[in-house]
Amino acid sequence: xxxxxxxxxxxxxxxxxxxxxxxxxxxxxxxxxxxxxxxxxxxxxxxxxxxxxxxxxxxxxxxxxxxxxxxxxxxxxxxxxxxxxxxxxxxxxxxxxxxxxxxxxxxxxxxxxxxxxxxxxxxxxxxxxxxxxxxxxxxxxxxxxxxxxxxxxxxxxxxxxxxxxxxxxxxxxxxxxxxxxxxxxxxxxxxxxxxxxxxxxxxxxxxxxxxxxxxxxxx
Length: 219
Prior knowledge:
The protein is mainly α. It has helices at residues 2-16, 43-65, 107-175, 181-216; strands at 69-79, 91-101. It is rod-shaped and about 140 Å long.
């Protein structure tokens, strides 16, 4: 048992990247649950949301690049001649106005570009819906495991108590010479196995609760 424990501690040390003593005292985590909160906060959802924002920016970019553009311009100077070419004198001059540009080339590809963006948007929506469906399915399965283990633990508590009662009765019978020492040891072993099974179910319940939180994205 000591060798097995040392091996498990070494594996834990490898997983955590920390040097752990062979005799380290590990604490059992408190009950983690609550299956009441079903809000999924997985990083995958953030990725899908960012991808959807990016698609929205692409849509706006396609629209923007096909809009007409207007700009103001102004130019001034001092020279001879000025704007009046017939007047051979130094003079101030300036020009101003509005420049209007409209590139019509993008209008031919606008429809196909928007169709491609719509396809990409739909693909991301389908991926997100599929992910949520699978995640919720895993949560329901994990909930069922948690409920089952809680019921088993309730039974374990009753069984351990009954086994303890039987062991006490067997002890009295042994002292009165009604049963043999082997019979008494059988009852002790049965009680011990019931306690070990209860501990196993406690660990399994804790693991199921941790898995539930992990699936939600809270671990």
